[in-house]
Amino acid sequence: MEEKTEYTTYTTTTTTTTTTTHQNSSEMSDSKTEHEVVLNEKIDQMSHHSASAHGNAAAMEKGQETNEEYDEHGNQINFVMSETEIKLVRKLDFMYVMPYIAVLNFLQFFDKSALNYSAVLGIRETASLDLKQFSWLGSIFYLGYLLFQGPSMILIQKMRLRMYIGTVIILWGVVLLLTFLGHNFSQLAALRFLLGFFEGGIYPCCIMLISSLYRRKEQAGRIGVVYICNGIALSFGGLIGYGIGNMDGAGGLRAWQWIMIILGAITILFGIVSFLFMVDNPKSKVLCLSSEEEKIVDARMRDNAVVRSKEIKMSHIYESLKEPRFYIFCLCSMLINFQNSVLNTYSSLITKGFGFTSLNAILLTIPSGVTDCLFIVIAVWYNRRYGNTLYGACAFLFVAIIGILLLVVIPVAKAKLLGLYLTWAYAAGYVLLLVSVANNVAGYTKKIFYSSSIMVFYTFGNFIGPFFMVESQAPLFVGGMVGCMVANAATIVLFIYARWDMARENRKRMANHVEMEVTPDMTDVENRNFIYRL
User: Fold this and answer.
1) What is the CA radius of gyration of the chain?
2) What is the Cβ-side half-sphere exposure of residue 495, based on CA atoms within 13 angstroms?
3) Measured between alpha carbons, how far is residue 160 from residues 148, 166, 284, 384 in Å?
4) Residue 250, pLDDT score
5) 48: buried, middle or exposed (CB in 10 Å: 19+, 13-18, 0-12)?
6) Any idea of the CA torsion for 264, 126, 365, 398, to the nearest 10 degrees?
7) Contact predicate 474/354, CB 8 Å
8) What is the pTM of this model?
9) What is the pLDDT of residue 41?
10) What tens digit of pLDDT does each residue of 248-294 get?
């Protein structure tokens, strides 16, 4: 139980000067009329005023008071979004940003998981693969993924995100399509390496897009969408895999080859569309912003603390390397993704081991996708409602531990299936890890460095995970699943420590509030009034 304390809030208010004052809510209520008059006269100066913890991030219509408060947990309170801002967010959600991110992540997850479906559709027979070689095909994808993180970090900072994302999508689509030509381990390993290499920069790009286009309190839901699309891909992948499985022999090709051809072609087409039309800037011309919307965008940019810059600031990197939570988040990313790689590569084989046919084993991956989505939706709702990001992550990892216990201990097939589905709760824990990073790391270079480093350790986890699975323990792979359970338990301990550390820093900052100028691209350490969302 967390110790009950009397909450203090930070309130930011626009005034007639270029400085701000720290006022409590009662003072603002008394001076509301005065401030409305001031704002009517000074609306054009709104975007130039600096506020306290996160800048003056109030989205408003003309004449509406600018007012934001944050409690010691970093949660925004007493903030009402204007109708104009609501319409702007809807444009981002349903037209210009989230549809691209959703399709991108659907394809990214489906494409890399094609090996999972291919495992029961003949790829092992075609290429004469033993289980160890098959494990290498699962792992070598992440070796390519890992090696691209350094170049990707530089390219994300230097290139337009739209062009960068579109290019790598096209390249990985070409590689996936060509995979149907692989007929031995060496050829397939080379293609899987290249597939991972070109997919390696996608997740950091998605996090950067969401971090720069949405307010901090809005980011959990949008990051959740990224991973909900993984679950949708898992569910629809089962249906699509089942359908393509019935194409075995068509045109002289095996079913697994048709999966590569069809998915590769779709991915290339989407890459071209993304290169030409994706919105990657809060003030993109595609959005056709009015002058009022531009002022709202300025306020939203101050709230999310992301100011884009092509300059790589080494001070941001050095600052990250001094922070214990940097290493904690990276290590947690690795530990959680032991299980990610195991399930994405072996879930069909595990399910088949319960006594089902190959095609039925593919169909039974559909509930895995449904539970994956359900857990993430619950995680996002919980985070928006209560804000306890890291406590929520711990709860979902505990559910995953229960699932693994059912899978390896209970001898009944239905109980094992239930356990397998519950293990997907780990995905919600990982989503909340990314939400915590997006909310609590300020400074453009620092945010990119954090995101890219976490992806490096994500890669380590996914590379190592398949080697937990020993052929002599097939089809349940008890040793590998127990290893995942231990990793989840260790992650829970690390999350609790990280939350305690940020809560301690929040108490210090709120007890020692300082008046300071908030300049663009400040980090969360440089801005002593920045409040971490726990």
Assistant:
1) 24
2) 30
3) 18, 10, 11, 31
4) 94
5) exposed
6) -100
7) no
8) 0.74
9) 40
10) 989 999 999 999 999 999 999 999 999 999 999 898 888 989 999 99
Among residues 352, 394, 396, the alpha carbon closest in space to that of 371 is found at 396
CB atoms near residue 125 (< 10 Å) = 10
Take residue 479 and report the two structure tokens written for it: 């040793």
The CB density around residue 85, as the number of other CB atoms within 10 Å, is: 21
Q: How far is CA 124 from CA 111, 189, 247, 254, in A?
A: 18, 13, 17, 11
Name the one residue in this structure whose structure tokens are 């070409």. 174
What gap in Å lies between CA 147 and CA 166, rounded to an integer?
Answer: 20
Q: Which of 15, 434, 370 is nearest to 204 (CA)?
A: 434
Report which DSSP code applies to 115: H
Main-chain phi, psi angles of 18, to 5 degrees: -90, 10
Looking at the DSSP bridge assignments, the partners of residue 69 are 11, 77
Residues 102-158: pLDDT tens digits? 999 999 988 988 888 898 888 999 999 998 899 899 889 989 999 998 899 899 888
The Cα–Cα gap between 204 and 449 comes to 9
Find out whether 186 and 128 touch, Cβ atoms under 8 Å: no
Provide the pLDDT for residue 174.
Answer: 98
Residue 343 is encoded by which pair of tokens? 């399930």
Q: Produce one character per residue of 272-311: b if its CB has 16 or more CB atoms within 10 Å, e if not.
A: eebbeebbbbbebeebebeebbebbbbbbbbbbbbeeeee
Q: Of 494, 214, 220, 215, which Cα lies nearest the Cα of 379?
A: 220
Sheet with 76-77: strands ordered across:
10-12, 68-70, 76-77
Residue 187 tokens read as: 């050829």
| Residue 336: closest CA among 238, 433, 447 | 433
Looking at residue 30, its amino acid is D
pLDDT at 76: 58
Diameter of the chain measured on Cα atoms? 79
369 touches 469 (CB < 8 A): no
Residues of the chain whose pLDDT is less than 70?
1-79, 305-307
